[in-house]
Amino acid sequence: MNRTWLILRRELNELRRNRTFFQTMAVFPVLMVLLPTATILFFNVVITDFSVANSPTTVGDCQQLGGLKACDKAGIVASLMSICFSFFLPVPAVLPMTIAAYSVVGEKERRSLEPLLATPIRTPELLLGKSLSAIIPATFLCWFSFGVLVLLLWALLPGLVLFRIDLLLWLATIALWTPLLAFLNTMVGMAISARARDARSAQQYGSLLALPVVGIVIGIALGFFDMTWGLLLAGLGALLILCVVTFRIALRLFQRETILTRWK
Fold first, then answer.
1. Tell me: the pLDDT tens digits for 121-159?
2. What is the DSSP code (8-state) at residue 58?
3. Which pLDDT value is given to residue 129?
4. Helix, strand, or coil here: 89?
5. Which of 119, 186, 226, 241 could be a cystine partner for 131, CB 3.0 to 4.6 Å?
6. Is pLDDT above 80 for 74?
């Protein structure tokens, strides 16, 4: 673990010198907090005006908004909150990939991989140290942004709306799924990066891994299914298994004896 910690510190120091990384980290909370808050508050006002302006004979128009009965303003706003919360799910599948895919290929391009591989550090320690440098920033950034968003909505929306959404479910989902999704995609990104010849191609291949998570977001947005405790537990079990499998696959693909000669 000491050698893993040394690799982690080394990678974090490299990130500190990367301006693009910090620019991305600074923009992300603004987009993921302010835009959903503004959208939800806007629709909260619009739906209120719609309910007041329309008579009971035109209630059918309200039924087309999320399939809710009558002019259920609280239910419609709560459904919109669920959609906005689901946008956080692809974040740990995309954000760490940029760091992980560049991790090995970037070392190749800077010609700093040779001395690193010549050290007595074991391959699992090397992979864990490098992957944690991508997982930790992405996970904490996602947790922080989601926490701020929940606090803002808690303060700005009426209690009736908050009563219609299971905040505990979403807090558990983001808290548990985020590090596992980040670990899963980082391990795959590391494996791709070890075989790729440049950072751009590694990032392009790695970005495809976010598609299954995006499918969940689209399903929630279109009303095909809702986030439930059963889905949370099923996804948690699947992610734990996939994390173990991808870590073992990454260890096999990361052949430190031939990685430099194959790249040259």
1. 787 888 888 888 888 888 998 999 999 999 999 998 888
2. G
3. 83
4. coil
5. 186
6. no
